[in-house]
Each structure stands twice: as C-alpha cells, then as structure tokens.
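Ligand: S-adenosylmethionine. Inputs:
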Amino acid sequence: MDQYKNMARYYDEKIIYSLKRAMEIERFLPTGKLLDVGCGTGVTLEYFKKKGYNVWGIDNSKAMLEIATRRISSEKLFKKNMTNFKLAEKFDAIICLFDTVNHLTKFSDWKRFFVSCSKHLSPRGVLIFDMNTLNKLNALIGKTINRGNGVKIKISRKENIFYWKVTTPSGINIIKEKSFPITKVSKLLKNYFSIKKIPTKSGRVYFICRPLQ
Ligand SMILES: C[S@@+](CC[C@H](N)C(=O)[O-])C[C@H]1O[C@@H](n2cnc3c(N)ncnc32)[C@H](O)[C@@H]1O
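Predicted complex:
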C-alpha cells in the first residue's frame, strides 16, 4: 500500500524540512556515489546533485517517485522496498533521512534494511540515517502539528505503533511509525558497522555507520 499516495504533492510543498535534514548530515558525507533510501520527492537528491554527487534513489511510493523524476533522472530512481533492495552498484554514501526507518514497524525489517545497506556500501563508505526516538514519539502523542499549507498532523499511539493522521485538502492519510530503544538499535548495528550516534535537540538521533574492516 502506498501510504503517501494522496499526500505526495502536499509533502513536496514543504521542501525546507527535507533540506534541513540534508544540511545536518552534509559534513559526514564522503564525495562520490550516493544512494538515498526512501528518497521521497527527491529534494535531498537534488540538493546533493547540485553539490557534485552522483545521486541515486529508491522509494516504495509511486506517487513520491513521480515527483522525484522532475528533479533526478528516472534512470537512477527505482521503486524498491528498503528492506530487500538490490542494485548492481556500490555506494560511497547511503543516506536514509527524515524518520524513514521509523516507517518499518517490525524490528526484523530494521535488520533487513541494515543488511541491504551493508551489501551496497563500498569498503570506505558510510551509511547515515536518522530515527525518531521513543521519547520523541511519546512526547508527540496528542499533539497537532500544523504544516501551514492546509496540512495538519495528529499523532496517537496504539499497541506500540504511532499513527500519524495527516489531514490534507484532499483527505486523510495514515502513516504508521515505530521506534525501538537506542541501545537495541545500536546493538544490532554493531554486527555490521562501527557506529557513532549524534543526538539532536529535537529528539531525533543520527547514526553514522561505517563497515567493519
Ligand atoms: C518521511 S518521508 C521522507 C522522504 C525523504 N527522505 C525526505 O527527507 O524528504 C518517508 C519516505 O519513506 C518511504 N518509505 C516508507 N517505507 C518504505 C519502504 N519500506 N521502502 C522504501 N521506501 C519507503 C515513503 O514512501 C516516503 O517517501
């Protein structure tokens, strides 16, 4: 199911949020070939393309990818699931930003995602992703976020899944998010990478992951 089908164009009206994420990680990125996992409407890819990166993207939303093709050659965009993607390429950098990993509601899928990334990184490559922590998501319960373009988001929780009810002028969309303790995620990651955690004031944590040598 395409969770973003009816909201891709509203999502793309607020590119500033995606640009902020790109700028936050820029200093950690090696130059070269970059893959954006869950690339959405391609804002981050366009940002790094302008900086000279050879950019590639995958996403499982047709609606989001359609907008991304206005920014990036469709030959480097693929409709793929981040838990089992295969590309005949190795990348200097793989990024996965803006809570994309939180869209995976099973921990086994987080593992599959990390394994897929490790298979696509060059030996000196880096994987950078962010996650919404449990603390952050819990603090959002009951709050309404007004995105300012007729889009409102209300967050609730049921059985450890966080439901983002996104109301747009075209209707209501539900996005599911899940999080896990940072210690549990770190332990899993250490099977494949050496890691560095960068907390932020907003409660988002970045992981900088390099293949074990
Ligand atoms: C919050 S958006 C972030 C988009 C983009 N990274 C950005 O910074 O603007 C999450 C994206 O992840 C994609 N996504 C969610 N689950 C996915 C999956 N299993 N495989 C691939 N993409 C997925 C969604 O379609 C959506 O485009």
